[in-house]
């Protein structure tokens, strides 16, 4: 399964402060929309005039050719001033002409190849929107000279491909770019076919079913389907659509044409004779028969694609590498067609198809070669045997399903930043990623995996019941629970949308600051240890993963009231309110809801301790008394693992409480009285029958006022002096010279039935004394934000008794960081480890697609590779630096894995001994690596919702499965 934690609030701050967009400043969205609209209507689009561009950089009028070096001069359109302004100020490139573009600028390495990706995205938008910004300028004669664009493209690749790192790090991007950048007269037939079908369907809705077929399950029979459609509606179609349909049929005929072996052989023979791949390709072409069965051709094509990828760096010639990448794309196109012809009849044949398509995913760059090698053995469980168990089938399904998700994740990781930027002013950009996924082997691989899932569900009686949508085997439960509420399907970016606590949300990816909701479903699952997953897990919020197609299918139920349940086995039920049983309706009685409330214990809290503490002086026994569990547990860890834990300072509850006795400006009472009055008045309002929404709005308004006041509170001079002295004693340097983290650490965290993970503020790598002082106020104020309040208001019976302490620790500039759970989650046993890591600081938080592994005593299973391109580093000067990464290497090395196993073993034995605790559960440990040294940053109990897991209803919908039952591999797939 695809699962995807050092500081748990880092990514939220990162998104707010360090937006991934390459724009030099915030985008003026309305202005850009106006410009796009203008370009569409302007005869010259984004261009000003036709000019000569001389080799010495001079630009001359069209009637005045370059006087020198005429052969190297090019003629094309020049950009309007506002087009150049968009490029200079906002790094937006519309209507890009390549012929005079600096190739290094176009590669745009400093901005994660944004300019190249924008060129591809522009081409896509032009194909689906009648030219987009070039709606009229596509007819501007002389604006673009195709031969000059071709020549530029060839030279671009020949100059940039000789560097090995570009091939190994950007293999997927380079192959994709070849489909859009002119260099050899090629075009992207698959994309063109979908774009033409969209144009017809948008203008003539009766073509929509045909368009859906072409987009979702294309086959050669579609040519006849389109032809018959045109004949059927001949009298109703305007002439322009008849032309479009004829052009679509021609494109489809080209796309489904048999492989021209002679053309490919001519390309191969242009490769240098000393290149070993040349001989392999010639052998392949000499034995390839296009008429052979797809069961034979698909494995051969998948294998040769991997040969090209594996051996491409053996040559240093840019020309050879360009030829090999072009051949790879051509062979992939053949493979996609042959894959559609392969209709397995038995379990064995279906598993073989999935295995070979997984290899093709590696060969085409959708997954990395090392990722395939990690799971290869799990895809060969059926080889050389007459039968497999249901458990083995499930393992095969989980692995192959993961490869589908990793493949989609590669496309999203590659283009997500550019698509996110463009979607702000051009919603059509959002479909670009979906189009690229559909152009790849991931489409048919996903269909095959879904078919296998349906068969396994039938055999094991584990099936979903999600309204009336198709392909339900793609849906799988992550966290058990049940909910009732309005279904909200969010097809685009969720950032900024209003979240209602009583609704059930279906997201592509959940927002970074998700407030409590009734239920969650996500396409981008993220990882098991993100804030959303942890909160859902321990609060019994049903959470499931689904496919992009499932999300689209559910969109017709957007706004409907539904019942939603996820069992512990992972099967999912969604039904309309009218279809709920009496048992299901009874689950939502007010009495049960009130029983779910948890009390924050305050009986032993020590508010009399009002001095800054050295972290070495606190231990686990002080949690909830002097400070929160972060500081208490880290102090305990410092005693047990002194070489793996940083020094620290603790600002206890008592200092916060003492400051709250100050007079609150403009209110005539203390901060503390204002807080308590807020909750007591809310209680009176409820007693008087005032609607809960009105009560909540009253509280939120008051708490926002309190939050803003605390952010300006005056700090006691004695406290500041203690802080200054504490820095020197603990960190060996003055405040202002040591970059530190300020971590909110409340008494509501890590209760037996509730975790406050990620609800309050953490500030990181702060250096100056002024920023540290202001940061303390912000951390104290953070429990009164809307998000934090809503979570605890919903699940705590005494939310007014939340006290923040603060843990101050020096920054460690880790190369990669993440979390370890000392048990297997959803896979594995209590003795295993689940780890999730990402590059830089703040690894595996807020739904990042992190490198996730299941570690047993002697094995290391890859559950998911990383698919997060952006990460943070923490310089000694304070603040952060933004970096990008690629995925050709795994994050954790063998030494890291052994260090993790060793520290986990010690944690399991030392903590019970040192703390005399009776806690027998798993631990949630935040850690990181710098120069291969393991650093521990936090430990807390791993909290799961026992009520959800033991619910009689959830048990009733979980089937009993005999995982040892054997299935004959030659069993027929005789089901629909």
From TrEMBL:
Residues 421-499 form the Cyclic nucleotide-binding domain. It catalyses: pyruvate + ATP + H2O = phosphoenolpyruvate + AMP + phosphate + 2 H(+). It is an enzyme of class 2 (transferase). It comes from the Bacteria. Keywords: ATP-binding, Kinase, Magnesium, Metal-binding, Nucleotide-binding, Transferase. Its EC number is 2.7.9.2. Pathway: Carbohydrate biosynthesis; gluconeogenesis. InterPro entries: ATP_grasp_subdomain_1, cNMP-bd_dom, PEP_synth, PPDK_AMP/ATP-bd. Its cofactor is Mg(2+). Belongs to the PEP-utilizing enzyme family. Catalyzes the phosphorylation of pyruvate to phosphoenolpyruvate. This is Phosphoenolpyruvate synthase. It comes from Jejudonia soesokkakensis.
